[in-house]
Amino acid sequence: MPLDSQRHRPLLPRLTQRPPHELEATYGGEGNSQGRKRRRPYTSKACNFCREKKNACDGKPECSQCLRRGLKCEYRMITDALLRAIPPGTQLVDKEEALNNAKAAELLDMLKRVPDDEVLEALKLLRIGNEPAEVSSALPKYDVGLSQVALNRAILPPTQTSLEFELMMRHPVAYPTWAPVQPSKLDLEFLLLPSKIRWDGTGPTLTTGLADGRSYLSPYGHRRGERSPDASSMIGPLRPSTLYDNRLLGVDISQWTDVPITNEFSIAVLQLYLEADHPLMPLIEVDLLLDGLLGQNEFCSRILVNALFAWACQGYAVFEPEATVIGHAFYNEAKELWKNSKETQATDHVCTVAAIQYLSITAVSFGAGAEYVEFLGDLLEMSRRLGLFNVDPSQTRENDVNDSADHRRAKNQIAWVLFTCLTFFSMHLHQRLIEHPPRVPPPDSTIYVARDTRDPGMPKDHQRRIYNAVLLREHCHLFLIVHDMIQVMYGAEQTPYAKAITLAFAEETYKRLLMWADGLPLEMAQGDQCTHHAMLLHIYYHLAIIDLFRPLLRQNGAPRQRLHAFRSTEATPDAVYAASVNQLKRIVLFYRQNHPESSYCFFWHSALLYLANAMLAETKISGHGPEWRFYFRLCMTCYQTLYTGFRLAKGITLSLLSMALEKGVMDIPQARAIRKDLELRGKHHEISDLVPVFWVVDLDLAMTDPSAAQAENLVQRFQDVQLCETTGNNETVAQEPRYDQ
Predict the structure, then answer these.
(1) pLDDT at 184
(2) Structural domain ending residue among the three candidates 106, 139, 172
(3) Is the entire prediction scored with pTM above 0.70?
(4) Where in this chain does the record put each Zn(2)-C6 fungal-type domain (predicted)?
């Protein structure tokens, strides 16, 4: 055999060449038994996005890559081959014309954000012959602080020597490393414009999951009309979804209230409440509550149902503003029932305690002045009588062996739920409400856990019980730590908050908070599939850290101090505070973008309050970029959206505007535009200008002057700026002071 034949492998005969369209049908198809990878089809052109990302472009007018991402597909007018053939130095574009076009585009973008009167003024300037650049310079600047350069600087990863980097590496559950924000992917119109309401042609439909596929009409039992012409920019009603629990179908709401509503309306309101709010404040365990609504146990009463609906109708008002009127009717009936209960000295019961809590938070969200204070006092007193909390440890615990197992379980649960709620409420009032926590141990979620909740074979109701139990357990453990903070910050010694926190106490408490976060179950970690309830758990966590270190910040007059538990040379209270503020920024942005509950769940508003305060505080610190303006405007937008259902949002918004005007970081036209939007979207509110007493908004000022930091005083200062408009043919503003930005 020749030597060459031993060195080379024998070649297979050449395959018969087939037409390209047959090859395309074979590769990657079902008949491709060898599983060869489909070849990328050749195209002589690619869109701008695919060129930049080096993606495979199919060359179609709207390529598949842009279509999948919802991007505008654009192509260069001149190909690379032609560009290479053009001699160097040749001018292809009239630079002056290109500059004018850019100025016109900048003006158009600016007109989208300014008030209507400014738009009309700009149009007048254009019609008399002014260039776009001249008109742009004449308009007040409404920069949201999200320029490409500023944002890129804001999202740079922390340096390796920083405390934030150490926290991200050692405690990734509490301080996850977020993916960089791409401005091109942010829907600024959605983020920075208050959401409107949209009804489709049939209203929200709830599918029961039963064999007959029955559906139910929209609230009030009738169909809605046609959609608004600008419906594309509005929030739609809840999409058809599986009914939370089929037991809702058997509820006859007329047995529990004199407010004339349909069963369909009650189902819609309860559906939204049970999905969005109840896991965050499960005063009555959901199965006990649903069975009680059917009359099968003792865990339901007329006062409880009326108080619950008074609260729940506010969230539902985002989809149907008239629900606020129904909510007021429930509120008034619940108040009358509670008045009669006190006059007759009715027996204390867990249902009554739950009802008073609903009445209290409803009065707060109504902005009903001092009305909530009476409910809060009644709640604390009845809770003490029932032995839920605030019981002196030296007192002998009453024997409850005669109570049923369900009653003991309900009593233990409401004790801890109220403990978490009132402890968090103390952070807003800057008052200690609970001295002694419940004497019973926190609820243990292990009694529900039989197997992995991700098991597809596990019934959904069992998954729900496990999830709610784990969420409640983590809330209890977190707020036990916060309770110890409250004891020091607002304890009986009446030491000013600014002086009550020492570095040693802050370090020890922060260590406990980090250990709590490290022990969170995986399903409670932040991620793209994190539930809105878990996101709020992280919000509460970072708010506690911000309050813990606020008195130790240099911007508040404290000396520079170092935390010895960390290796970073930059481990200071200011660094811890900044790390949690950065997390809060991303949480608020993510929550607003990805969770529709941001429009109708009021429990998350505290994140907006704390972030807005932090952003206003940044304006007086040198070295901070202008991105604070974007996050402050984002908080205002979210409050404007929440105002559709919750009256308190207006008082907080006006208070924050007052703070911004006093700091000189906002112009009068901007504040006037926000106030005008609030007035337009709040027409359905019976009384819209009240705020709850003692409600703290200016968090830094509250350390030294709590009274001046409260909403009622801040709103009054806002009114004193004399933003009142005079009505006439032309809109004017009386005595407008001007502030430098």
Answers:
(1) 56
(2) 139
(3) yes
(4) 46-75
